[in-house]
Structure formats: C-alpha cells, structure tokens
Batch of 2 targets.
Target 1
Amino acid sequence: MNKNIALIYGDCSSPEIVTQAVRVLDKIAAKHGHTFTYTRAYMGGEAIDKFGDPLPAAELEKCKQSDSVLLGAIGGPKWEGMPGDHRPEKGLLRLRAGMGLYANNRPAKIWPQLADASPLKKSIVDQG
C-alpha cells in the first residue's frame, strides 16, 4: 500500500506528538510493506507566523491532494489576541470546509452518573 499523508505539526507541544506518530507509522510501514510519503503542510499558529494566514490556499491544496492528513492540535496563548479571521482555529474550519468534512465525530462514553449532565439529546444518551 502506498499512501500520501499531509503532516500538519500544529502548535505548542503538538509537533512532538506528531513526530512520534510519524515514527509509529514508519514502523507499521516497515513491518507490513507499506510506503507512506509525507508532505509538510502549515496550518494554525505556525502558518500565521510563516505566512500571516491560518491556512493559505496552497497549504489547503497540499492536504486535498493527499490520501490522509495527520493533524496536531493548533492554537495557543501566543495567538489568543488575534482578530477572529486570523486566529489559528480559522484554519481548522477552512480545512474541514475545503475537504468536505463537516462533522467532528469523536467516540464518547456516557457514565450513568453523568447522563443527566450531557448536552446530547436524552434519546441519544439512552442508547449509551
């Protein structure tokens, strides 16, 4: 299997995490005969610092041309005072829209003791 993966290292401590995730992917590739080709893409605070934009069009295009995107967390105290359209999070919204990804689904476990505090509809919570 040959796959192209866009790497967005993210901000603050995220680059360290993404670096380790790449090491894991490389081990998986070696063990199973896969080839992963990585393309560096900039988004969030590091894109603001480098380009003055949380997700330049060229960086979005790199992501769209890839089979997958490995994304570190973005944002941090350094960029908190930025105007809304130049905040790191704006890059994340552009990435989702540009790739046609409109849901941020995450696994969740409902603890019975906290079920009444959930923001989810009761009909969803009741399903576990």
Target 2
Amino acid sequence: MAAEYDLVILGGGTGGYVAAIRASQLGLKTAIVENDKLGGTCLHRGCIPSKAMLRSAEVFSLAKRSGEFGIETNQVSLQMEKVQERKRKIVDQLYHGVQQLIQKGNIDVYYGTGTILGPSIFSPLPGTISVELKDDNEMLIPKNLIIATGSSPRTLPGLNIDGETVLTSEDALEISDLPKSILIIGGGAIGIEWASMLADFGVEVTVLEYANHILPSEDQDISRELTKALKKKGVQIITGAKVLSETMEMENEEATIKVEKNEEVKSFSAEKILVSVGREANISQIGLQNTDIRLQNHYIQVNEMMQTQNSHIYAIGDVVGGLQLAHVAAHEGILAVEHMAGLNPDPIRYEHVPKCVYSHPEVASVGLTERGALDQGLQIKIGKFPFLANGKALVFGDTTGFVKIIADQETNDLLGIHMIGPNVTDLISEAGLARVLDATPWEVGTMIHPHPSLSETIGEAALAVDHSAIHI
C-alpha cells in the first residue's frame, strides 16, 4: 500500500512530534514514523526521567538538612524503588499527554522502522519512506520530509557497554540498587547531573574529564564554582584526564581503568562506570545514501531553514549537531514546518538559546562566555552578584553561586549571562528574553524585580556591570 502526505516525519521525539503538531495546525496532512515510543529519548530515556530522579536526590539531601529549618525528623532513608516509581508515573503522564495531542491533531503514526528511498515508481524525487511494520510494509509518499531520528550515547573504544558494570546514561536511569562507588567518564552536562544526583544519594563519585575543567562549554567562573560545590558533596573531580579505556580490568566486583594525566598513568576503581562522552546522530541505517544529503562530522548538513541538499527534505534536532537540546529540536521543527508552509519564518539565532544543567547547584547560561568574548577581540565589562547577598536565597537555605553578566564596553550590548545557584534554570528565561530584545544591562537593572525573589540577583548583577549594584 502507498499513502500520500504533505509531510512525513521520521522520528517522533521532541523535535518530531512538535513539528507534527505545528504542521497539523497549518492544515498539512501529516504522519510520524516512530520505531519506539512518541516522545523519544527526552521523554523516556533522558530529560524527564533524569530530572525526576534529580529532584528526588535534591529532596533527600534537603531532608537530611531539615534541622537547619527548625524541623526535626526521624532518620531519613532512601527507597530507590519509590524513586523509580515516581519517575515512571511522571513519564507515563507526559507520554499520555503527547499521545492525546497527536490524536487531537489527526496525525497518523506508523510504529515501525522507516527507510528513505531514492527516486522510484512512487516519486521522481528521493524521500518516499518505506516503513517496516511487524507484519507488513507501508509506503509513505510525502511532499516534504523531516528527518528527526535523534541520537544515541557515544561510547569509548575498549569499554564494552554491558548495562551492568559499564553503563550509559540511559542504562543508569534504571538503577534499582545504588552502587557504593561509580566512575563517571565525562564532565559535560549529562555527566555532571549524574555526579550531583548520585553524590546526593550517597554514592562515592569520581568524575574523569578530558578537558581542563568540567562543563567545558560554560564560563570558567561557573565551572570553578560548580567544582567547589561538587567537591563539598564529596565528588572527586579529575580534569585533564585521558582514559586509557582498553586497560579496563575486573577484580572483586570492581572495575579498574587507567587514566593518563600530566604524562602519568593512574588507576581508578569503582563498582560501576558511567560513560558520558556525548551523543552521536542516529543516521546510519535510514537510507541517506539514496539522497543527495551531505554529512559533516557525521551530522546532516542543513541551511538556516533546516533544509538539506534535497530542498524538500529537512533535518532537525540531534542529527544536525550543534546544540543537542530538546528545546532546540522543537523550535527547529517549527521553523522547518513554517518554512515549507510558506510562512517565511526568521532563522533561529542559536546565540540566544538558553542552556541548562540540572545539577545541584543548577547552572544556566545564554550567550558568550568571558573567554569567548575576549577571543572575538571584544572589550568587555562584567557584573557579578552572589546569591549569598540575596534575601530569598537565604530563606531557601541555598546561597551557593552567583549571576554573572558580560557586556560590550563600547556598545553596552549584553553578550552573555551566566548563572549558578538555586532555580537558575528558571531564572535564565529573563536573561534569554533580554538577549532577544537586545536589552542593555541598564534596562535589565532598572526593571523593578519583586522582593524578596531570586530574580533580584539578575537586576543587581546587571547594575553591577556599571558599578551601580545596591546590595554589594
């Protein structure tokens, strides 16, 4: 059988299903091909389940400090089976919501493996999708195609991911019995979130990062502050560490690997190893060879409207590289759909995209780091304000961190806003809007922020750029 559509989307993750909903709103007959569950990695094996577990870890840590708030409790204990049960309930609720949205939009879903075909009897252009179903095969003939197949955890040569001793972040989400100790290879966002969570759960954590500081893409002041906070939790952080993965050995139910640092080789051992060294695009078996699509560094090349070399075929999300974030994939999907519908949308300005790390303390940023601004030859001025001087942070009992604002000395433009501390993954939206509206530090600082609120730190940091902060 063959079915015709205005749009077929290969992959029903965040980018894919959001694109489908927008296409439905614009009157496009739309289908999704998904080989697992709608919602993809973010909903089922990434963003949502990991944040649910991080919240449990944060509450557990806070409960052990309840005496500081004048609340005496009996001995606090952790029940991982209930942590997992809560995580599953949240995922199931959101999954049900996505299914309802797809149904509301009259979007067809084909659960199977989709392959892109070249020109054939079905179409003179590449892009027909052959869907391998359980008991059948379906041909979908789209006017437009979006590739949104996402990514998978990258591994290291010589480290066999077995789901028992050597884990990916997806494997770790299913942990029912916490290990006594764990080595986390990779100090990026995912690795640091797991380090924070597991340390709060009481696991001995060691982070091995190849770069000279954790969160290499973040501002170095943020990295230093987070390093201090994690070490206070008991996390051992080894930077400049090259893992010699082929040397892993097992002894007494512990895995041992060798690490080269400063031309010296040291051994590190733990019950578990979590490999968190980035993600790679899921593009190897989807039929790209049947198209004119080009790859760069194993990612699909697209223009600013998300089009590939075949102009009716678009690609979004992790398969195009760049910022591999769910909110980016969603907006790329909307952009692609609006472009194919002739709405002439503005391209995404990736320098305006907020980035978040949901560790404790949280990290959030938008725009250039201090080093990035200096590398561009810009003359800069900086304002910082600590949460220690914020009334609401004191009330919260969480005063770690600061807000840092970088501005252009000549134009007064906001270049970057960087935060570490309580709830900054929510506070960053104000900073992101300031960037979009091309606000100046003076405009942000003179906006009246409610008192007491954590958001006051943004206003004070903005005023501090020109040495006008009130409370420091």
